[in-house]
Structures are given as C-alpha cells and as structure tokens.
Amino acid sequence: MTSTNFSPPSDRLLTETVSVTLQINDRLYTVEIEPRVTLLDLLRERLELTGSKKGCDHGQCGACTVLIDGRRVNSCLTLAVMQVGKTITTIEGLAQGDELHPMQAAFIQNDAFQCGYCTSGQICSAIGLLSEGKADSDADIRELMSGNLCRCGAYPNIVAAIQSVAASVRAGDATI
Asked: pTM, whole model, 2 decimals?
C-alpha cells in the first residue's frame, strides 16, 4: 500500500485575498477578495448589486443567473476570480437609463412574474437563450429555461414574453 503525503492548506491560503478587476454592467470594479468567493456573493455582498438572488446556492434554481460574455451562467457556482477579462451583465445592467430592455418590458406586458423573486434570473436566462438562437418553439423555450424555477407557476407567461421578444427580434424591431 502506498502512502500519499498530504498536508492541509495553511490558514494563510484560506484567508489570503487577491485583487481583481471585473467589468460588470459596463463599469470596472476593482476589489480585494478571497479566491473562494462566488460571483453571486461578490455581486450581492460587496458591490450591492442585489438583483441576482440567492435561491438554492447549488445551481439548481436559476435565481442567480447572470450573463457572462452573453451566455447565461449560475453566479452561485462561479468563482469571481475566474471572470477577469469577461463582460458580466446583471439585471441592473439591462436597462438603458429609463428605457427597459425589451425582455424586461415583455415580462411586464405578459405578466410573466408574480412574487418577483426569480424574475431577474428568468430575464437574464431568457436573454441568453435568445442570443444563443434557440427559441424556436414553446417546447424549446420550456426545455431550455428548465434550469430557472418559478414557484409561483408563471411559466406560460414567461414563455409568452420570450416568444414576443423573439418575434420582435426576427422582425428587426428589437435587439437583444
């Protein structure tokens, strides 16, 4: 039997901080963080960008979904230090001044939320879904949005909101 020499990491490694600069919502943030800090915890606790929600903290509910380089990502499963050089967009970065993003407006027009807890993740995921070009049918949307849970059951209205924006994009009336 072979023995492996294993020594646990020193306390210094567990508490050492690193300086990172991240581009979030078209703004640069330089912060000192421990390497183990998730993007969600950085957004909510350090930068006070609280639109992304901590639902399950296991990547199963989608309430924490943000866009990283246009792709939907569960921020609770993503280390902040790994996002240097990438473009991060949260729900707070979607509107242009007082003008809502087309997906935000569609969620309102289609009554695609009730309590609102999951809404930011649903909207970010829907934008990512459309930018991936995969919103071909209601069934496709339901399948590809299945990682975003809504305890209130607003799913039909969420699908309707996504379809309305998809139609506007196809007609050239909206961009994602």
From this structure: 0.89
